[in-house]
Recover the amino acids of this structure.
């Protein structure tokens, strides 16, 4: 799982990051955002499984941040704070858990296990046949099999289909989450590709995918291993 820690105090944030690395085998990546604004910018582009979110920050609260950014429904929020007085508000905001600083190892492990359990019991998505995309004041029902790829366009996403291209107001991370259990792979920070539409794979330093519609999509160095694992090559 991928986690993001949003906390404008560097020391507690780095402490939590290290505690996660040492204690939570379920989390393979734990990233830091040392301001609420940095956290928003990241969440607008990337999907995370867990958001560790500080409540009292200089420019806004953790609750304010959640109101400003459209995180994926399956992202689980765990609030972190030095004050227990926010517990009720945290759970009203649909937080999965609430950790009081200094965060204890056993409480952290328990919270992360809750996330794993919630995700495993949420139901498989492999029966998904289509998705609804909001476009020009109406929702368009797109068949998954007709989607060739998704491409980030700022905070928007281009959806390239067999017969047309649509522009969605959702970020690419949203669609990465929607396609999580389907045959799509994130080969680059800006690209999410339908595996069924990969025609060729170019190797070497400038690795790329050639798709059935002749689009050439770069493969970033950081995504190579995940791509190979997904394609079983």
């Amino acid at each position: 799982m991928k986690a993001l820690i949003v906390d404008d105090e560097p020391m507690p944030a780095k402490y939590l990051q290290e505690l996660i690395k040492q204690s939570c085998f379920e989390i393979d990546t734990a990233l830091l955002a040392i301001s609420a604004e940095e956290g928003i910018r990241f969440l607008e582009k990337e999907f995370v499984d867990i958001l560790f979110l500080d409540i009292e920050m200089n420019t806004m609260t953790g609750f304010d941040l959640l109101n400003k950014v459209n995180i994926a429904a399956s992202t689980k929020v765990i609030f972190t704070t030095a004050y227990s007085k926010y517990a009720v508000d945290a759970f009203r905001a649909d937080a999965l858990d609430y950790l009081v600083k200094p965060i204890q190892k056993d409480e952290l492990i328990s919270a992360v296990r809750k996330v794993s359990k919630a995700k495993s019991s949420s139901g498989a998505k492999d029966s998904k046949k289509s998705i609804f995309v909001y476009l020009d004041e109406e929702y368009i029902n797109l068949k998954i099999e007709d989607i060739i790829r998704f491409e980030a366009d700022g905070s928007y996403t281009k959806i390239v289909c067999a017969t047309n291209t649509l522009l969605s107001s959702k970020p690419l991370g949203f669609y990465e989450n929607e396609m999580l259990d389907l045959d799509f792979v994130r080969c680059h920070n800006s690209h999410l590709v339908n595996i069924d539409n990969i025609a060729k794979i170019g190797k070497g330093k400038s690795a790329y995918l050639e798709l059935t519609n002749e689009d050439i999509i770069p493969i970033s160095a950081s995504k190579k291993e995940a791509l190979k694992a997904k394609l079983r090559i």
